[in-house]
Amino acid sequence: MVEKTIRLTGISANSIEDAVQLAVARASVTITGIHSAKVIGIEAEIEDKRVTRWKVTVNCTFRVTESLHE
Amino acid sequence: MSAKIVEVHPGIYEIFLPLPARPTIINVWLIDCHGAWALIDTGMNLPDSIQTLEQALATLNIKVEDIDVLFGTHHHPDHFGASATIQQRSGAQVYLHRLEQEKVARVLSMFGMAQRPPEALRFFERNGVPPHNYEGLRPAFYSNGAYIPTQTPDKYLRDGDIVKVGERRFEVIWTPGHSPGHSVFYLPDDKVMVVGDHLLPRITPHVGIYPDSTPDPLGDFINSHLKIQKFDVELVLPAHGGTFHDHRHRANQIIEHHRYREEEMLDLLKHQAMTAWEVAQQVWGDEERPFAQWMAATFETLAHLEHAYLEGRARKFERGDKIVFQAA
């Protein structure tokens, strides 16, 4: 069995969790079977002394599946 | 443009016709029905396109006049713009969904209007579109002859109909979303599906809400993708981009794309309410765009927000004279 990992940064106006969710949702447009997202970096964008956006970098991992030609 | 025609399946030909703007090519489909010829979609009614079609047909020793049946997937100019010309020259039986015929009539009624109807201007304003010289945005096809659709189709396409042409059978599948009467054609004996703009391999078609739209075009579009997955298909023939095989895979990608887009919009609306225009600025604001593109982005945003509202995931209320949405 082989797994593949890709690195993405999700950006949310609300929370770290939402940023992770957005990254996973976007990756799921073209990848099926993502089973884990390891948070490897968090950055908060600040405007006027307030956090405006959370930028969370994750390693999304999915299993590489084999296709059989019938 | 020189003729480009490819036989993608025995007796089924892809003809590449030029378009004046992106996407720059539309694929129309010529089908040898053994004793009759069917054409699915027409390209625009521009000399370059008609000439390219003629040249392509000539490679098979046939002419526009030999077309017996013309199917329209939907009313848009690149798909149905030359339908009157082809109908007149060939006497072909023209098939179109009734809802698309209503759209044809609506588009044609706007050709002669000096300005947008008041309800359209009010609709733009209510959804946050700033005042603009909309008359400068009139599409070229309003006046350059590119859109001469037939106003008298011979038959209306209905979901589930099986149209027999020569020895071929075409099953009509109503796939509303990109357009309310959009239909795709399934050839069960060949396991081929001609999908128009419903299922494109590289891009996603525009799904928007306009003053005359049904309440939930995005919901319709997603349901149409679930619907086509029930068919056994080995070859997919799209209007833009190359042919492909796995219709279910691509349909799922498109559904996931819209799911993600809705999540992205609701994320922006968790703690503040915004108009569709404001949301579109956030989602597509990564580059400079012409105003017409911002309008299209706004109406596609509105399709997502209304869908979220109908799902119970968003609230909708008035702020001053504007309609705003907020995550539920």
Description of the molecule:
With 70 residues, chain A is α+β, with helices and mostly antiparallel strands. Chain A has one helix spanning 16-27; strands at residues 2-12, 34-47, 50-64. In chain A, strands 1-3-2 form a three-stranded antiparallel β-sheet. Chain A is elongated, with a radius of gyration of 15 Å. The mean pLDDT of chain A is 94. With 328 residues, chain B is α/β, with parallel strands linked by helices. Chain B has helices at residues 47-58, 77-80, 83-90, 98-111, 118-126, 217-228, 247-268, 276-283, 291-310, and strands spanning 5-9, 12-18, 25-32, 37-40, 69-71, 93-97, 155-157, 162-165, 168-174, 183-187, 192-196, 235-238, 314-319, 322-327. The relative contact order of chain B is 0.12.
Keywords for this entry:
heterodimer, A: 70 residues, alpha+beta, Dodecin subunit-like, three-stranded antiparallel β-sheet, 1 helix, 17% helix, B: 328 residues, alpha/beta, Metallo-beta-lactamase, Chain A, seven-stranded mixed β-sheet, 14 strands, 33% helix, globular
Uncertain residue segments of chain A:
none
CATH fold node name of chain B: Metallo-beta-lactamase, Chain A
Work out the count of structural domains of chain B: 1
State the strand order across the main sheet of chain B.
1-2-3-4-5-6-7
Second-tier CATH architecture of chain A: 2-Layer Sandwich
CATH topology call of chain A:
Dodecin subunit-like
Largest sheet of chain A: 3 strands, antiparallel
So, the CATH homologous superfamily of chain B? Answer: Ribonuclease Z/Hydroxyacylglutathione hydrolase-like
Radius of gyration of chain A: 15 Å
Biggest pleated-sheet summary of chain B = 7 strands, mixed
